[in-house]
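anyone seen this seq b4? input:
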Amino acid sequence: MIEFPVVLVINCGSSSIKFSVMDADSQDVLLTGIAEGINTDVATLRINDGEPAELIRQDYESALSAITDELDKRQLLNSVTLIGHRIAHGGSIFSESVLITDEVIEQIRQVSPLAPLHNFANLSGVECAKRLFPGVQQVAVFDTSFHQTLAPEAYLYGLPWRYFEEHGVRRYGFHGTSHRYVAQRAYDLLGLEAQNSGLVIAHLGNGASICAVRDGKSADTSMGMTPLEGLMMGTRCGDVDFGAMAWIASQTGQSLSDLERVVNKESGLLGISGLSSDLRVLEKAWHDGHEHARLAIKTFVHRIARHIGGHAMALKRLDGIIFTGGIGENSSLIRQLIVEHLEVLGIQLDGEKNLLSGKHGERIISRPDSRIACAVIPTNEEQMIAMDAIHLGNINAEAEYA
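predicted toks r here
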């Protein structure tokens, strides 16, 4: 038996590989890094936020091989006992994390047309890791699986039934690993029992989504068949009237692929502000008098508040509203503006606690007399993936798994 087992967590994107190495007993992070520029002219590897080093080759296997070299330098390579992979889309097949087998790989491949950019990249990571770590168990953790508890009325679109039956057109939801992790942490922070609780979680980053968690399970979520639906985001438009897009096409002659690019890459905070998709840039611009930056932020906040209120209706009770993600954890302005929009819920924000920086970690930011608790909980998808791997794998680690 390996005396010092570690879990390697891999997140293969369309042009990057993020990874972390975690102690299987304590879940302490021992090493992190990112390989960027995969399948481009210049690929680099950066370890622990250090300076990027250029890779000789730019494919997934070469990048993962360079990562194994870094593990070897730090005497961690032979301790890798489990590998956890983030998989973007599990379709309707996967309702929980699973040990990866040849059958599972084929099933992931079957649903990959639902998220071609991400799933095929995820599979590349799985297949490369099989070759580089022969015999090491691998676990797939799906962004969508947490939302497989949605009822049909929550996941169906008002489209002809044949599109669902023949093509799988339905709402799947994303950010599930983050929402699941944050919900588990919220129960401890707020002193709740999962089986008799109701939370609305706002994962706010460049991608953003809301999730209603009822009795420990996802009851509704804002993202749909793709991550485009729901909130306005950094460059995504979120909810939009299809009739508006049809009208734009008729007036401009833009093709479906043109409009797909617009709603995914040119809209949201960037589209309205005409300045940036980075909220930090827009907050500064607002203070400097940039009108479109102000309008972008106010529209962003309005959409979030509307979805929080709507998602609360999926619950039997509302115990807390939780902010997470890069924006949710770090922008006191956005949290304040959202809570102001939710005045009808009787939330009383503690101004001093809300102003604390993200480095203060998990904290309740509502006052004791608030009708509903409001909190900030930093997400940790990597730890959730590692915990799932430990739960499913054959090592004796003392992981707190709920």
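The domain at 6-142 is CATH 3.30.420.40 (Nucleotidyltransferase; domain 5). The first strand starts at residue 6 and ends at 12. kinda curious what u guys think
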